[in-house]
Every structure is written in C-alpha cells, then in structure tokens.
Amino acid sequence: MALPCSSHSTLHSKLTFGSTSKTPFLGFTLKPTTLSLTQKPLQVRSQDLSIVPQEQRWMFADDEISGPDIWNKTWYPKASDHINTDKKWYIVDATDKVLGRLSSTIANYIRGKNLVTYTPSVDMGAFVIVVNAEKVAVSGKKRTQKLYRRHSGRPGGMTVETFDQLQQRIPERIIEHAVRGMLPKGRLGRALFNHLKVYKGPDHPHEAQTPIDLPIRDKRIQIQR
Amino acid sequence: MTRIRRGYVARRRRTKIRLFASTFRGTHSRLTRTTIQQKIRALVSAHRDRGRQKRSFRRLWITRINAAIREMGVSYIYSISINDLYKRQLLLNRKILAQIAISNTNCLYMISNKIIK
C-alpha cells in the first residue's frame, strides 16, 4: 500500500512512497513532502512485488519492489539502532523540583517512551544526569515523615530512616530510589537504571557527552516559593 | 495367553513429541516424560499467546503513535488525535500509523495537522 506522501531519500532513510492520484483510503490528497535528515538510519522498504496481483501493481512505486514488508511487519530495532555511544544525554537540575514528578519524567526518558522507536524489550532510552540532588523538594510533611526502609535479611534487621536523615547521609539515594521504583523490574530494568547518573553538587564528570537540558512538560514540577 | 510385544507404536508417538521439543533446554529435550509435559506447556502458551499477541502489538503501536504525536507540541495527545481521526473518517489503523510514524514522521505530522483543523 503506497501513500501519496513521497519523500526524497537522504543519507540513510531509503523509504519512498510513490505519489499516485488514486488512493481510496484517505479522505484528502496529500502533497508530496521532502523528508528531512533523520537521525536513525532506518532501512525500511516495502514488500516483494511478485505476490501482488497484476491489477494492483500500480499502487507500488519502483523503489518498493524489494526489501522487507514494512506494512505487515512491525518495526523492530536492529543492533545499530541502539548503540550506547549514540544515545542522547540529558541533564536536569533537581533544585526545588518535586521528587515524584521529576523521577517520573526521568524514568520516561530513560526508558525511551518519548521516542517513536520505543520498544519494550530493547534499551532505546537516553542517559540522564541529575545534579544538585541534595536540593530536591517534597511537598507537605514528607520531609520529616517519609520513611525509607531497608532490611539486611537477618531477623530484626530492618532499618528505618526519614527523608531528612537520608538526605543528610546519602542524598543521591533518594532520587535513585524514586527512579528505580518507576523503571521496569527485571534484567532490562536493572540495565536501564545504570543510565541514571545522580550527583550531589552542581558538577558532573560527563562534560564530554555534551548533555542537553531535559525538556520537562509538567507544570507543577517546580516548587512554588 | 501368548506373549505380545507392543512393537513400535509407543516409540513412534514419542519420537514425534521429541522432535517437537528437540530445541528445548536441558532435560526438557532429553527425558521422555519431561518432554511430553514441556510440549503440552509449549502448545498451551502458544495458544494463549496468539490472543495476547494481538493485544500486545496494539499496545505497542499505541505507545509509538503517542510518542510521535507528543513530539508535535505541548497539547498534542494520542487520545485527542485518535478522536480527530475518527471525526474526519480517516480509516488508517494503528499499525499503519505506527509504521508511518517510524519510517516517515513528516507524513504523520502532515496527517495530524490536517485532521486537527
């Protein structure tokens, strides 16, 4: 099935749709458009023409004759689509941001749910750096009332700490704990967790990765003072 | 009563099962009784998951379309876009929309801009 939305191939993306006038599926005709340079090198092409009956061959453009069937096989990333060195790096300043809302956004970016190429079984997400972790905020009385528990495995080995105490002791653990709870639990989830880098002060050792600012859409993430 | 050997009846039946489970791990492909059980479990999973497959793929397409639509702007959401799609009587299903989103994102942007108006 060809859509009348042709794109001229640039470096990587080899997909072109034939522009035809006879398309019964859309309620309007689309003008052909040029595809801008895509970052992901996707080799996506349509099906083999020999299985198409003669009277329907007008629907396919010349470029679509050979290659995998993109309309009947859902796209799955190849190894070259998720190389760690090509992933994006984001940076967030946690100063005065609500803990849960911040962690939720971070978890989404780490998992890759903001990308079209999202695949649940593959690590397609980005790396996220969090700085100023000790300045993260919580609403209400959580600062003194939220409890962090851990158990050593032995009887009577439960340790309970409040948010305040943990923030003084190991501030990075607060954000790590929150994000870990929002990532999937399993082998892939544990691998994703390693893409989160939390730091106490305003410095981080990842200047070489040139991180971009994490785009946050949540309006209530910043604590109003 | 004369002695009757059972012959190759059972062996033939078990060979078929063993062939089915020939790629299973460890004793699941070696020991007869275990093989029979594992074949049954495999077929049960396959039967159940053929129904699940349809669900999970639709889920994946929806997530991908959602991600693509949200990149367009702040108040662009999957649910609203699908509603617009229905209002404008566009018959594209989620599978095709997701594949369009991945292979030719500009096309998807054009479609959704048209239906928003």
TrEMBL record, chain A:
Record field: transmembrane: none
GO cellular component term of the entry, any: cytosolic large ribosomal subunit
Keywords: Ribonucleoprotein, Ribosomal protein
Superkingdom assignment: Eukaryota
GO annotation, biological process: negative regulation of translation; translation
GO molecular function: mRNA binding; structural constituent of ribosome
Family label: Belongs to the universal ribosomal protein uL13 family.
Protein name (database record): Large ribosomal subunit protein uL13c
Automatic annotation (TrEMBL), chain B:
UniProt xrefs under Pfam families: Ribosomal_L20
Annotated localization: Plastid, Chloroplast
SUPFAM superfamilies to which the protein is assigned, alphabetical: Ribosomal protein L20
GO molecular function: rRNA binding; structural constituent of ribosome
GO terms for biological process, alphabetical: ribosomal large subunit assembly; translation
InterPro entries: Ribosomal_bL20 (IPR005813), RIBOSOMAL_L20_CS (IPR049946), Ribosomal_protein_bL20_C (IPR035566)
Any one GO CC term of the record: chloroplast
CDD domains: Ribosomal_L20
UniProt KW keywords: Chloroplast, Plastid, Ribonucleoprotein, Ribosomal protein, RNA-binding, rRNA-binding
Keyword RNA-binding appears in the UniProt entry: yes
Reported function: Binds directly to 23S ribosomal RNA and is necessary for the in vitro assembly process of the 50S ribosomal subunit. It is not involved in the protein synthesizing functions of that subunit.
Family: Belongs to the bacterial ribosomal protein bL20 family.
Protein's UniProt name: Large ribosomal subunit protein bL20c
Organism, scientific name: Coptis chinensis
